[in-house]
Amino acid sequence: MLRFPQGHALRVTRLTSPRNVGAFAVLRGVSLTRSYRKPARPPLSFVFDIDGVLLRESTVLPAAKRALTLLEGDNAFRTKIPYILVTNGGGKTEEDRCRDLTSQLGFPITTSQFIQCHTILKSHAHRYAEEPVLVLGGRQDEVKKIAQGYGFKKAYSTLDVKAWNPHVWPFYDLTPEELASTTPVDFSKTRLSAIFVFHDPRNWALDVQVAIDVILSGGVIGAPYVNPKKRSSAEKPVQLVFCNPDLQWGAQFQRPRLGQGAFRVAFQAVFKGLTGMEYPYEQYGKPTNATYQFAETVLREHTAKVLGGPVGGTPSVYMIGDNPESDIAGANAAGWSSILVHTGVYNPEDGPPTHQPTHEAEDVEAAVKWAIELRRAYGA
Ligand code: G3P
Ligand code: MG
């Protein structure tokens, strides 16, 4: 009796002659093919927030490694449970950040399971490929390089603007490292068509000043200011895009720190002070629908990758986060289950969370254990 490795079957492509089918035929066209059986739908899948759940800045939270160990197979289902990481953080390339996370968490984290707040802009870059744009956030030229890597060929930073004309913001001098990271550009001859806030700005004052200059001068810094209410509709307004709405985030300090969302509030307050109006903007990052829909696609594709083929139907999704405003609100709106942990922004002593999670847990390990037990008890 012919035996074949698990999951393989014999496929006869061509017989020498029909007569001797019963006997052992001389087979020319023979190949071992994998009989395709749709991989079993995993019992559940996870979406992890990073800051305040797995890490606090660069410190790995003790429960993080134990939680991932459970998903790598050491669980009641004796199977790998797919998971992705979705953070409102940013400021590094996806490849670099995955390299860091892999060494911090001790498990391979690949770009197919990783989303940061500006990853979604990859799909926008083609529209701005040849357009000069301003990118904000991060240190020196980190964010400019990420934007160029996404396809924003003419991405410039506020440090480039300051280097071009130091009088644009007289209260700060560039450090030698910052100056070395700048690109010489004549902004009086360059019309910036959009401002993308990729990551948390380091120099709020410089960034607010330059962003206001770009918008009120119709993209050409130094040109006369025109109140947007009075700008002719024929003129294409400067686009303003924020990637992370978090007012606060869970860092090393014992109280949450101001995030990119707080920078947006500060910018709009100054803009309103000057013009009487807030400037319209596009928002990405958790809890926006765009980011959760993007995450659902990434989770489905990564699950298929882990399991070696598209699985029938979407396994139940558990989002584990520390921020009710971004992680829990977004997961609830996406129809996922949501688990709020007490290791980051949210502190139960501050009262009930602003968005009700499916469950609350001390830390990420307790959260994963709770979800696995629930699926085991009530069936996948
Ligand atoms: O700057 C990052 C912060 O806003 C939150 O990151 O990982 O908790 O979504 P995360
Ligand atoms: Mg967080």
UniProtKB/TrEMBL annotation:
GO terms for cellular component: mitochondrion. InterPro entries: CDP-alcohol_PTase-I, HAD-like_sf, HAD-SF_hydro_IIA, HAD-SF_hydro_IIA_CECR5, HAD_sf. It holds the Pfam family Hydrolase_6. PANTHER family: CAT EYE SYNDROME CRITICAL REGION PROTEIN 5, CDP-DIACYLGLYCEROL--GLYCEROL-3-PHOSPHATE 3-PHOSPHATIDYLTRANSFERASE-RELATED. It comes from the Eukaryota. This is Uncharacterized protein. GO terms for biological process: glycerophospholipid biosynthetic process.
